[in-house]
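Holo model, flavin mononucleotide. Inputs:
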Amino acid sequence: MARLALNWGLLISGVVMIGTGVVAYWWGISQMGLHIWSGFVFAVFAFIHTVLNISHLLRWPRYTPWGRLVRWQPPRGARWRVAHPSRRSFLRGLIVGAAGMFAAMTLSALSVFGRSRTTEEADLGRAYHRWSSVTLQGVLWGALPWGQPQEPFKTYPNAPRVALPRPAPMTMPLTEAMNRRRSLRDYREGHISQEALSALLHAAQGITEPSYPKRAVPSAGALYPIEVYVSVQRVENLSPGLYHYAVREHALEYLKADVRRPLTVACLDQEHVATAAAVFILTAIFQRERWKYKGRAYRYILMEAGHVGQNIYLAATALGLGACAIGAFYDDMLNELLGVDGDEEAALYVLTVGILR
Ligand SMILES: Cc1cc2nc3c(=O)[nH]c(=O)nc-3n(C[C@H](O)[C@H](O)[C@H](O)COP(=O)(O)O)c2cc1C
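Output:
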């Protein structure tokens, strides 16, 4: 029974470890709690397994070289038997496998079942990119707007409001900030000032020309589809919680208490989300840009999120803080946490900012 539990434990933790490792690799995540913990659990199981089977390991050298190894016998007293293929059946398996591969390759080269689309060709992004290309016909026929224009300001009228102080000054030369900027994730405990938070929010969406009003980031048609939410985690004299940035008033609107834990989980357990002083979550309200730019709007919206992200990176660098972008998150979980529907408004990009070790 114990041995069965051990084997299942090994198998499951191994699969989780490999799975999360592959996810971390593909999504470019360098710190993932789930992966690290499954690694520890696997190591413990592997250690117990090794201790229980130490007698096998000690006998092992006697069964080399190859000829003796395939005639391996379970150690005396063992109650279970391991199936070992004979050399002939092993060879048969190899031949059958190779023949199967050869048959599949030949059939596909001869297009016997018709040519199936490669995943690359089936990529929706590729289809969208083509579909949203500007063409002369599109320009001529696409004069009618898609739906109604919308105000570029979202507010939560019933939310308690927190006025932000003047942004902290940033004196680092731009070239230095660009050269120093890195994705930094190793944060220590400690609080950033409200002035620093104010400077980061100003860099993200702050109004820089009140008469129009224009903002610190460019926006196609000055339609400003990006909204900024911030999970305040370690900011001086500010309760931890989820806030929305009220652009016009340069203020925060308090939405809910501390979301550190669910936010970290929504970001695939990336540890720098939990240790950051503040986590910025960028969403888009698509209709703000869609009515004018129609099918092309989605392209512009992603470009604009990139502008905001880079401004946050540079501002954090100039303030002597670390920042790291996050593109890997569970969309539905994050949208639900923010209280947005994921359709009219959806999360696009997350950035952590923290005090460096
Ligand atoms: C769109 C985008 C998504 C990213 N997603 C993650 C992420 O989920 N987790 C993470 O640790 N880093 C993420 N990064 C940071 C990259 O890993 C990092 O930019 C890259 O390694 C280059 O290093 P540098 O930013 O220090 O120059 C992301 C970066 C971009 C631009």
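The radius of gyration is 28 Å. The chain has 15 helices and ten strands.
Archived with the compound record.
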